[in-house]
Design a protein that fits this description.
Largest sheet: 4 strands, mixed
Strand content: 15-25%
CATH architecture of the largest domain: Sandwich
Number of strands: 11
Number of domains: 3
Helix content: 10-25%
Low-confidence stretches: 70-107
CATH superfamily of the largest domain: Urease metallochaperone UreE, N-terminal domain
Number of helices: 8
Shape: elongated
Mean pLDDT: 79
Distance between the termini: 56 Å
Strand order of the largest sheet: 6-7-11-10
């Protein structure tokens, strides 16, 4: 889209973007398709100037979002709802009109690019914030309120709807909650980045969840069904006979929800625990087992 080589540095990318933006901006170019072309140019610039997104693009190509997971999804479908309203498209170019001439890229100097063509109108600056979630909140979805102080010192509250299956780095857009626009331009937006807190019980790998499954020696040896807590509620894990510590048991579709796609999986990793103190009957039975068994865990398989 930008016409730059794969090895292009930030200066080359910015120069190419400026030239194309000046040519295709819908307030300058009234040709059919200019608006869509400008949006694609802006998206390309956004991806290539974000180190994480560029690394994913360099690795996976144009379909990087499909393969790189949702660590930082910038597409419209991944923009969750703020104030109960859902936006299509990236928050960086939500609306274009002769009265809305703000930049498609945060921090880009549009006055420098277009001069006085737009009569001094300028879209308000976007604001950003982070919101920390537990794994359970990210799994089930929730509603949270954040409070931010504006330039005048006034504290404002915003209700944020967190979709089920939210991932670390996902962004929630609150339309119109940014800085005031200049002239007739609309205000900026509030972009809230979700952060899923580390959890001692659960480990996230994209849409998959991994957790430890404590079992007794006899459950590991004989097998059985074990009831255990998971982010979505209690689940039953079937432990095959002869399971050693470290064995991963897969529960399909029990991972993070993915609206419109396949849900992740839950992996329960077997962890054999023994009693800290043995009762007399337990000690006697373990001693009988040690005499009867020929099993040597240190013998090469």
């Amino acid at each position: 889209m930008l016409g730059v080589p794969r090895t292009a540095d930030a200066k080359q990318i910015k120069r190419a973007y400026r030239d194309l933006a000046r040519k295709y901006h819908p307030d300058v170019n009234k040709d059919p398709g200019a608006d869509e072309r400008f949006k694609r140019i802006s998206e390309a610039h956004h991806v290539l100037t974000d180190p994480e997104l560029r690394a994913q693009y360099d690795r996976f190509g144009p379909d990087f979002r499909q393969y790189a997971g949702a660590a930082r999804d910038t597409g419209g479908a991944a923009e969750a709802r703020g104030r109960g309203r859902r936006h299509s498209g990236s928050p960086r170019y939500t609306t274009w009109s002769t009265a809305s001439t703000g930049g498609a890229e945060a921090g880009f100097d549009w006055d420098d690019l277009f001069g006085e063509v737009f009569g001094g109108s300028e879209r308000g600056a976007d604001r950003s914030a982070e919101l920390e979630l537990s794994v359970e909140e990210a799994y089930r979805g929730t509603r949270r309120t954040i409070r931010l102080q504006d330039a005048n010192g006034t504290v404002q509250s915003y209700d944020i709807e967190i979709p089920a299956g939210a991932v670390d780095g996902q962004r929630v857009l609150v339309s119109g909650a940014g800085g005031e626009g200049r002239g007739d331009a609309r205000p900026g937006d509030l972009v809230v980045t979700l952060r899923v807190s580390p959890d001692r019980r659960y480990r996230l790998d994209g849409a998959n969840i991994e957790m430890d499954l404590p079992v007794s020696p006899w459950e590991a040896a004989l097998g059985g069904e074990v009831r255990v807590s998971a982010p979505g509620g209690p689940v039953t894990v079937r432990v095959p006979p002869g399971s050693s510590s470290g064995r991963r048991l897969r529960l399909r579709g029990q991972g993070m929800p993915r609206p419109g796609g396949r849900d992740g999986d839950l992996f329960a990793r077997v962890r054999i625990l023994v009693p800290n103190r043995l009762s007399d009957p337990e000690r006697e039975l373990f001693e009988q087992l040690s005499r009867a068994s020929s099993f040597d865990p240190r013998r090469p398989a």
